[in-house]
Amino acid sequence: MKAHSLHQARAGFSKLFDKALSGEPQKVTRYGKDFVVIVSESDWLGKANIAPTLGSLLTRHAGSQRLEAADFSRPFSQKRPLGSDFE
Questions:
Q1: pLDDT 10s digits, 32-62
Q2: Are 16 and 4 in contact (CB under 8 A)?
Q3: In sequence order, what E strands does 1-87 have?
């Protein structure tokens, strides 16, 4: 992917536009740092669906795992003597 300065991109925007439409993303820099990438809409929409959403990951995980009920046999108000675990 070739990088173009913002000044060059403004001067040749139609060329950048045509290259992006042909499937070649174009990087535009500002003050020598990465700024934006120009891509065609079809490329953008095609790549946007690659990464799963958090909701779909959680749904998939919950469906594959059997959730066990927590053990609440000891009420929360019951005090446990300190240090009894270390004897």
A1: 888 899 998 888 887 655 667 777 777 777 7
A2: yes
A3: 3-5, 26-30, 33-38
Alpha-carbon dihedral 66, 71, 77, 79, rounded to 10 degrees = -130
**Lookup: tokens for 47:** 């790549």
What's the burial of 8, exposed, middle or buried (CB within 10 Å: 0-12/13-18/19+)? middle
Domain architecture of the chain: domains with CATH: 1-40 (3.40.1620.10)
Q: Which has the closest alpha carbon to 42: 22, 62, 69?
A: 22
Q: What type of residue sits at position 3?
A: A
| Assessment of whether the complete model's pTM goes beyond 0.70 | no
Q: Which structure tokens are listed for 87? A: 């004897």
Q: What is the enclosing helix (H) or strand (E) of 54?
A: helix 54-64
- In 10 A of CB 44, how many CB atoms? 13
